Amino acid sequence: MPPDVPPPVCVADVERSAARRLPREVHDFVAGGSGDESAMRANRDALDRVRVVPRILAGSDSPDTATALLGVEASMPVAVAPMAYQRLLHPQAERAAARAARAAGVPYVISTLSSDPLEEVAEAGGTTWFQLYWLRDRARVTELVRRAEEAGCRALVLTVDVPVMGRRLRDVRNGFALPSTVTAANLGTGTDGVPHIARAGVSAVAAHTGLAFEAAIGWSDLAWLRALTALPLVLKGVLDPRDAHQAVESGVDGVIVSNHGGRQLSSAPASVTALPGVVEAVGGRCSVLFDSGIRSGTDILRALALGADGVLCGRPVLWGLATDGEAGVGLVLGLLRTELTEALQLSGCGDVAAARALATVVG
């Protein structure tokens, strides 16, 4: 941190610090959404409209932020979301972020498109989950699941909202492609490990995923996956209560309410507006996590009050990684825990369970 710049006191400060350090095209790759980016903006606007009604005469000197996520103890109701190609942000990449998550006592979700092999990330981390994209070659899907099991990952997170990658105009305008030093380390060579080729007016990342990912997956594929592994199975990208209900009927252990941070369907609703309906649909039969737009401890409180068991935090972790590697990620997670503790105190909650009983209004 330059001597004339004060230390970060919130996630927005960390984001500004990262923006000063990153090449513009890399910053755009992380910060951008799909289409006109209205879904991404809606995430922030909708969260800001959720007002939490505090309780009185029910506070605590030291609220307990600890909880269980998918049956594993966590220091707070937060997991690090799966995010691709973290070597773009820092040379130590996913391993640095996983070490910071381990030190903070929260789960770290390893992406299929991580730039470090999943085994190395799992070894660096504490509680790790593996996020799965469905590849065209089902044998490779099986291979990834088995590798995750053998590496000690505690859950499998199937992303279901990327049949194709949303058209991200910042990347298209930049002709964005990964540098040769950044690869999808879990995919190796072959059709699903082809190199990224820079071309004007084309996102090489989107072109790559179009070759690698299977678009036409359905509930029968989920049944096959459920039979393949005994790991807890979570669906990421659920917005419709009907899909949440069917997911529970299909034997999943959790759903993640998410519009992919505004990076897929640009007209999708803000994730937080979908959260109450999904919570009602599952009726306590599986875990419900929330993703897309978490920027503060107050945002975590909002999600808890709307019925989520916990949240996933994405871009802020990458801003921290870009700013100061493992220490930067630790700073972001520490800020979130400090803010959550204060939010619990101010809302009259002694623990996470009390926060889930708070009332909310939209204003």
From TrEMBL:
The active site is at 260 (proton acceptor). The keyword Oxidoreductase applies. Belongs to the FMN-dependent alpha-hydroxy acid dehydrogenase family. Residues 3-363 form the FMN hydroxy acid dehydrogenase domain. FMN binds at residues 82-84, 111, 131, 159, 236, 258, 291-295, 314-315. SUPFAM superfamilies: FMN-linked oxidoreductases (SSF51395). InterPro entries: Aldolase_TIM, Alpha-hydoxy_acid_DH_FMN, FMN-dep_DH, FMN_HAD, FMN_hydac_DH_AS. Its cofactor is FMN. The keyword DNA damage does not apply. Glyoxylate binds at residues 133, 168, 260, 263. This is Alpha-hydroxy-acid oxidizing enzyme. Keywords: Flavoprotein, FMN, Oxidoreductase. GO terms for molecular function: FMN binding; oxidoreductase activity, acting on CH-OH group of donors.
